[in-house]
């Protein structure tokens, strides 16, 4: 059965006239009449009694209207469910980012997101590898460099800076370096171990800053920034850390603040096919609010 004709029949049966049904459907009275006549010819039976006071369903028309009413009621319910799902985000959301940013910055804020959207099931994957979101290994990624794949949607989130930090305990024991040359003498440096993974920024800039032809020695090398943060916070030495880390604890203070370390940009990245995903939309907006709140 032609669904367009059934839709017109349903409207006529409810309205009781071709004119009112046409107004409801946004088509002319003559178009409504032609559709009903075509439906009756196809079924081989009249569906309405026509008289001056309007239309009345025949016995066959009553039977068809009973079915059509149930069908359109279920369609309306299905439309409402789809609209509700679109308006109320729910389902799984797999987020991937670096070990440091995920473990320190993002986990501090996920409680508010989960409390706000309890029907979203969040999975956080922290790794120094860039998981391929276009292949479905995650739904969305927070990356510390612009994506190279052209088929990914990217949103710039914030710009972060590396600076030299030490714990208050370290400063009490070893003193505050006043100039770069002090790093060559009695101070300890914590460095990134580049033999395991090449960092996305020149994080070991303190090893060569202000000198040529050689590098300063490190008392400890760690293959992720979170490990450097923990070692620095324990009082072991001076480390180059992104500013968001130092802001999460009162125990770290900047040293040689006139030195500007490398800067890097964080991006929200997701595949084109998830452009209209409500889960990603609310997560993106949540991140932007968090970053704006931090700036304030």
Instruction: Please name the CATH architecture of the largest domain.
Output: 3-Layer(aba) Sandwich
**The top level CATH class name of the largest domain:** Alpha Beta
Radius of gyration: 33 Å
Q: Name the average pLDDT.
A: 88
Number of helices: 9
Low-confidence stretches: none
The CATH superfamily of the largest domain bears the name Periplasmic binding protein-like II
CATH topology of the largest domain: D-Maltodextrin-Binding Protein, domain 2
How far do the termini sit from each other? 61 Å
Structural class: alpha/beta
Beta strand %: 15-25%
Order of helices and strands: HHHEEHEHEEEHEEHEHEEH
What can be said about the biggest beta sheet? 9 strands, mixed
| Share of helical residues | 40-55%
Count of all domains: 3
Task: Name the overall outline.
Answer: rod-shaped
> What's the count of strands?
11
Kindly describe this structure.
- This protein has 296 residues and is an alpha/beta fold.
- The chain has 3 domains: 85 residues, Winged helix-like DNA-binding domain superfamily/Winged helix DNA-binding domain (Arc Repressor Mutant, subunit A), CATH 1.10.10.10; 99 residues, Periplasmic binding protein-like II (D-Maltodextrin-Binding Protein, domain 2, 3-Layer(aba) Sandwich); 105 residues, D-Maltodextrin-Binding Protein, domain 2 (3-Layer(aba) Sandwich).
- Helices cover 41% and strands 22% of the residues.
- The protein is built from 9 helices and 11 strands.
- Strands 3, 4, 5, 6, 7, 8, 9, 10 and 11 form a 9-stranded mixed β-sheet that branches.
- β1 and β2 form a beta hairpin.
- α1 crosses α3, α1 packs across α4 and α2 crosses α3.
- The two termini are 61 Å apart.
């Amino acid at each position: 059965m032609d669904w367009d004709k059934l839709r017109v029949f349903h409207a006529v049966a409810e309205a009781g006239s071709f004119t009112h049904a046409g107004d409801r459907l946004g088509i002319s009275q003559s178009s409504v009449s032609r559709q009903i006549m075509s439906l009756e010819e196809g079924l081989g039976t009249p569906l309405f009694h026509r008289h001056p006071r309007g239309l009345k369903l025949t016995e066959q028309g009553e039977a068809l209207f009973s079915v059509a009413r149930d069908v359109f009621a279920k369609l309306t319910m299905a439309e409402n469910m789809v609209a509700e799902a679109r308006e109320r985000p729910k389902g799984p959301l797999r987020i991937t980012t670096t070990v440091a940013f995920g473990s320190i910055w993002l986990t501090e804020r996920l409680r508010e997101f989960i409390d706000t959207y309890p029907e979203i099931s969040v999975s956080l994957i922290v790794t120094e590898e860039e998981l391929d979101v276009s292949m479905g290994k995650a739904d969305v990624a927070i990356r510390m460099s612009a994506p190279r794949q052209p088929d990914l949607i990217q949103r710039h989130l914030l710009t972060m800076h590396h600076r030299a930090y030490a714990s208050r305990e370290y400063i009490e024991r070893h003193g505050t370096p006043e100039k770069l040359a002090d790093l060559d003498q009695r101070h300890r440096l914590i460095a990134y171990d580049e033999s395991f993974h090449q960092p996305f920024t020149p994080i070991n800039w303190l090893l060569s800053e202000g000198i040529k032809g050689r590098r300063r020695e490190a008392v400890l090398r760690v293959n992720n920034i979170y490990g450097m943060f923990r070692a620095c916070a324990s009082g072991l030495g001076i480390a180059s850390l992104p500013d968001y880390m130092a802001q999460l604890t009162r125990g770290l203070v900047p040293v040689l603040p006139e030195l500007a370390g490398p800067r890097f940009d964080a991006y929200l990245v997701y595949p084109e096919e998830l452009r209209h995903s409500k889960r990603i939309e609310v997560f993106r907006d949540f991140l932007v609010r968090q970053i704006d709140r931090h700036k304030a």
